[in-house]
Design goal:
The complex is a heterodimer.
Chain A lengths: L15 H5 L15 E7 L5 E7 L1 H4 L4 E5 L36 E2 L5 E7 L2 H9 L2 E6 L6 H4 L15 E7 L4 H10 L2 E9 L11 E7 L4 E6 L4 H13 L6 E4 L15 H13 L3 E4 L2 H7 L6 E9 L5 E13 L26 E10 L13 H19 L3 H8 L8 E2 L5 E2 L4 H11 L5 H10 L3 E10 L7 H6 L8 E7 L5 E5 L8 H13 L6 E5 L16 H27 L7 E4 L2 E4 L5 E3 H9 L14 E6 L8 E11 L4 E12 L6 H20 L30 E4 L19 H20 L14 H8 L3
Parallel strand pairs in A: 1-12, 10-11, 14-15, 20-21, 27-28
Antiparallel strand pairs in A: 1-5, 2-4, 2-6, 3-5, 7-15, 8-13, 9-10, 9-12, 13-14, 16-17, 18-26, 19-20, 19-25, 22-23, 23-24, 26-27
Chain B lengths: L1 E7 L2 E7 L5 H8 L18 E4 L2 E4 L12 E3 L13 H8 L9 H14 L5 H7 L11 H10 L11
The chains are: A alpha+beta, B alpha+beta.
Bound molecules: FE2/S2 (inorganic) cluster (FES) (2 copies).
Keywords (chain B): 2Fe-2S, Iron, Iron-sulfur, Metal-binding, Oxidoreductase
Organism (chain B): Fuscovulum blasticum DSM 2131
InterPro entries (chain B): 2Fe-2S-bd, 2Fe-2S-bd_dom_sf, 2Fe-2S_ferredoxin-like_sf, 2Fe-2S_ferredoxin-type, Beta-grasp_dom_sf, Diverse_Oxidoreductases
Chain lengths: 791, 161
């Protein structure tokens, strides 16, 4: 049994009280005296030459303070990209310029052309309408394959083509994989689209820039998952402001899902403008603006091939993917279809040979970057779809085909053919758990019952693995990352024993204020209410890399544990002095320091007081105070894995798919707060099911975003989803971080799309539509119905 | 600019607004009640839901002038008089019905109106009733559970936590 409030307890979230009473403090809730409002005039064409931007008339409009165009930013840098991928020929990727405001050309609908700063938002918006922009329209580049044709128009004139890179992994295996296919008994092929998605956290992006003339200090309040990263990128690469003069604050943030990792032009623009106009400048995105300016997700076209021997052992896997980068390289964009995707193509399986080819392509569309799962959903989707297809073509049970090829529990640590080493796992166990919880055995009877009602019932399974706890800095450095991926924590013990923790992780829904406090409270043996978690402000926390890639507890939590251990070590020294015993004899348990084998002891508060009121204190050998900082750089990724099952019905008259049950059996390693972990899985499942059934980002032939609002982009709503069955009782603790945790934030979004599509195909094939072996996501009624009637 | 007066969370308030000022802006910018959130510009997300004369209304969809004289209730007015969480708010916390908290005010206001109309809804009725509120974080599982629990129903049988 976990201790009350300790590790393993479903402690209720302390942050909820402010959110439930309207007292959350999100960026848009921040208003600074004298603040002006920014409005961005954006391109309404996908591709064009910017002939002129005439702001004369607009500048005279009421309330207008200043209008900024590209010329104003001539002296600053462009928006940087944080990852440089090297292609399969050893050449670095093509990296275009990304100006803060469009310069010379506009490259996607939504590309910002000018920023109006005015006394009110309405005045700024009115003035933007009066700006005269002359654009010579150019043919837009939209389709990735067309974009690579030699005569295709170029998104970036200064590049040799629209190809960002042509990446091969593992390049040395290319020939061996081809050979394996030649001799294979079975060769399965599948063409897939991983549909483009919009992250759509419910809070749109906001940025407020402030500048203090007397100190030269800049402050940016922004909706970010990683304020330190923004400070580094914007300060060092765009505006040339030293970290000491730049504070970035990300207060309560209303969800991120990846889209708030990146450094965006609007952040730099308001920070820059605040100094120019000597007043705070606030920008709040409308939802329509978010649809054309937030980095989007996925958008891969893939051919995947699987070779099997006559006994159905996987021999080799080969993929060719086109990955859409959009018009510019967003912060981590190049790494997503490569290192976060190719390295997962072994999945949970023993496939000895893997070759992944990815062509990243520039198009006249909104930039694409990480979205919940980032690369790993794409890998899992391909793999779990082709395994299902193979099972059907070979006439074997998809569960058994997976089981046969699983890396077996006694094979860990397991070196995959795609560089990574899985430390631990037990995929048979998660599969068993799934089959049990979903009553797989009873499916046939349920399918019969559906049939009587004229419905087609299907069951789909997927097993996923992901690489989380991102990431070992030295490794990612070799792979092209331009940043380290450690995390930091400062543990400040106060004189009366309470603890303030400053973490570089950022919580925007994950509940760190609760879970991080649980961990430290248990380590020290005090009540969690004595532990306060502070995050989101570069002025008080050590340099940290923020929250994404399911890394907060695995990396940020580890930094916190490390710093807390330093605290405990020092506290023991103080205790040994006060108790006049040798340090080795001091035992620390439940907030008490005891001399082993005696009843002589000091409480936690005795020690913390002594540290700050060092009257009786070993000053010659120990500094006063009790505050420690630690940085933790993981030695490996963590590898959460799990089995997901989807049971659904199709109405053959309409093609409508209804999910009846969804079960998730995950191995997240150790769990600190089961309630929160389950909530993370629920949210991930909703997004994955959303991708599979509803969501789709569609551009027309002119590059206009057709799905540009919640009226056209189908977000999952309460009545689209069932209650979920989730379980995390299969535990193989991570072997290389102190908490044994693996991360749970992205799993749901990774494992669920193939489970849904596999279930749809299962239902259709059982219902006699044996010609249907694939339908692209989202499996809308129209697509399902069309497939059924396309004999 | 025109003067508008109304009662918000039991207090009479007034302010100067333009004809185009939305109730949501009046609450947020005029009165500093920032618990009412703006999640979209097409009346689709429900983050802005408040009660006007007891009915759930998307405050981004009505002009401040249109509710002159009305009784308006926002998330800031939902706790018990002693400041403790109301039954519905407490059910959200107990069931982990919120993550980032951004949809939460609108979700609570919609759910409160739903329960006022239908004190013992079925799961399907709750899902249907909350269909105008988008939550990107929770997958709705724990929200639906919270609303069912707030209505006095036993939710212990519902899968997982
Ligand atoms: S802000 Fe009112 S419905 Fe979205
Ligand atoms: S809790 Fe984040 S949108 Fe609902």
């Amino acid at each position: 049994m976990p201790k009350d409030g300790g590790i393993g307890a479903s402690v209720k979230r302390r942050e909820d009280v402010r959110f439930l009473t309207g007292k959350g403090r999100y960026t848009d809730d921040i208003n600074i005296r004298g603040q002006l409002y920014a409005f961005f005039l954006r391109s309404d064409v996908a591709h064009g030459r910017l002939k002129s931007v005439d702001t004369a008339a607009a500048s005279d409009m009421p309330g207008v303070v200043r209008i900024f165009t590209a010329a104003d930013f001539a002296g600053v840098g462009g928006i940087p990209c944080g990852w440089q991928v090297t292609d399969r020929f050893g050449k670095v990727m093509q990296e275009p310029k990304h100006p803060v405001l469009a310069d010379g050309k506009v490259r996607h609908v939504g590309d910002p052309i000018a920023m109006v700063v005015a006394e009110t938002l309405d005045q700024a918006r009115d003035a933007a309408e009066a700006i005269r922009v002359e654009i010579e329209e150019l043919p837009p580049v939209l389709n990735m394959k067309d974009a690579l044709k030699p005569d295709a128009p170029k998104v970036h004139d200064e590049l040799t083509s629209n190809l960002c890179y042509d990446w091969g992994f593992v390049e040395e295996n290319r020939e061996a994989v081809a050979k394996a296919f030649e001799g294979a008994a079975h060769h399965i092929t599948l063409d897939l689209v991983n549909n483009r998605l919009v992250a759509n956290p419910m809070e749109p992006r906001v940025a407020v820039g402030d500048y203090e003339d007397h100190s030269g200090m800049h402050t940016l309040y922004t909706t970010s998952q990683n304020p330190h990263v923004i400070r580094l990128l914007m300060g060092a690469f765009v505006l040339g402001i030293p970290e000491s003069k730049l504070r970035v604050v990300a207060p309560d943030v209303g969800g991120g899902f990846g889209s708030k990792i990146y450094h965006y032009a609007e952040e730099a623009a308001v920070t820059f403008a605040a100094k120019q106009v000597k007043r705070p400048v606030k920008w709040t995105a409308s939802r329509s603006e978010a649809f054309i300016s937030d980095a989007q997700g996925r958008d891969h076209l893939t051919r995947i091939e699987l070779a099997l021997d006559k006994d159905h052992n996987f021999l080799a896997l080969r993929t060719e993917t086109h990955a859409n980068m959009g018009a510019y390289l967003s912060t981590f964009a190049p790494s997503i279809p490569t290192w976060l995707h190719g390295t997962l193509m072994a999945g949970n399986y023993k496939t000895p040979l893997v070759y992944v080819n990815v062509k990243a392509v520039f198009t006249n569309t909104v930039p694409v970057d990480a979205y919940r799962g980032a690369g790993r959903p794409e890998a899992t989707y391909q793999l779990e779809r082709i395994i299902d297809k193979a099972a059907r073509e070979l006439g074997v049970d998809p569960v058994e085909l997976r089981r046969k090829n699983f890396i077996q529990p006694d094979q860990f640590p397991y070196q995959t053919p795609v560089a990574v080493v899985y430390d631990t796992g037990n995929y048979q166990a998660t599969m068993d758990k799934l089959l049990e919880l979903s009553d797989h055995a009873g499916f046939a009877a349920r399918a019969e019952e559906s049939k009587k009602r004229g419905r087609l019932r299907g069951f789909g399974i997927a097993h996923y693995i992901e690489a989380c706890g991102i990431a070992p800095s030295n490794l990612v450095g070799q792979l092209g990352a331009r940043a380290g991926l450690y995390e930091s924590a400062t543990v400040r013990v106060n004189a009366t024993g309470s603890i303030t923790i400053f973490t570089g992780s950022h919580s925007h829904g994950q509940g760190h204020e609760t879970t991080f406090a649980q961990v430290v409270a248990e380590m020290i043996g005090i009540d969690a209410s004595q532990v306060e978690i502070v995050h989101g402000d570069t002025s008080n926390s050590p340099m940290g890399m923020g929250t994404y890639g399911s890394r907060s507890l695995a990396v940020g939590g580890s930094a916190m544990v490390k710093a807390t251990n330093k605290i405990i070590n020092k506290a023991k020294k103080i205790a040994s002095h006060l108790l006049e015993a040798s340090e080795q004899d001091i035992e620390f348990k439940d907030g008490k320091f005891t001399v082993a084998g005696t009843d002589r002891s000091k409480t936690w508060v005795d020690i913390t007081l002594a540290a700050y009121v060092p009257h009786n204190y070993p000053l010659e050998s120990l500094e006063p105070g009790l505050e420690e900082t630690a940085f933790y750089d993981p030695s490996n990724f963590t590898y959460p894995a799990g089995a997901y099952g989807c049971e659904l019905e199709i109405d053959p008259d309409t093609g409508k798919v209804t999910i009846l049950a969804f079960t998730a059996a995950d191995d997240f390693g150790n769990v600190v707060n089961p309630m929160i972990v389950e909530g993370q899985v629920h949210g991930g499942l909703a997004q994955g099911i959303g991708q599979a059934m509803l969501e789709n980002c569609v551009f027309d032939e002119n590059g206009q975003l057709l799905s540009g609002s919640f009226m056209d982009y189908a977000m999952p709503r309460a009545d689209d989803l069932p209650f979920f069955k989730v379980d995390h009782s299969c535990i193989t603790p991570c072997t290389h971080n102190p908490l044994g945790v693996k991360g749970c934030g992205e799993a749901g979004a990774i494992g669920s799309p193939p489970a849904v599509v596999n279930a749809v195909i299962d239902a259709l094939q059982r219902g006699g539509y044996s010609h249907i072996d694939h339908i692209d996501m989202p499996v809308s009624p129209a697509r399902v119905w069309a497939a059924m009637h396309q004999r | 600019m025109t003067k508008v007066s109304m009662t918000v969370n039991g207090k009479s308030v007034s302010g100067e607004v333009e004809g185009r000022t939305l109730l949501s802006s009046f609450l947020r910018d005029g009165l500093g009640l920032t618990g009412t959130h703006i999640g979209c510009d097409t009346s689709q997300c429900g983050a802005c839901v408040v009660h006007v004369d007891g009915r759930a209304v998307k405050s981004c969809t009505v002009f401040a002038l249109d509710v002159a004289g009305a009784q308006v209730k926002t998330i800031e007015g939902m706790a018990n008089p002693d400041g403790s969480l109301s039954v519905l708010q407490q059910a959200f916390q107990d069931n982990h019905g919120l993550q980032c908290g951004f949809c939460t005010p609108g979700m609570v206001m919609s759910a409160a109106a739903l329960l006022a109309d239908n004190p013992s809804p079925t799961e399907a009725e709750v899902r249907h009733g909350l269909e105008g509120n988008i939550c990107r974080c929770t997958g709705y599982h724990n929200i639906v559970k919270a609303v069912l629990q707030a209505s006095g129903q036993d939710v212990s049988k519902i899968a997982a936590e």
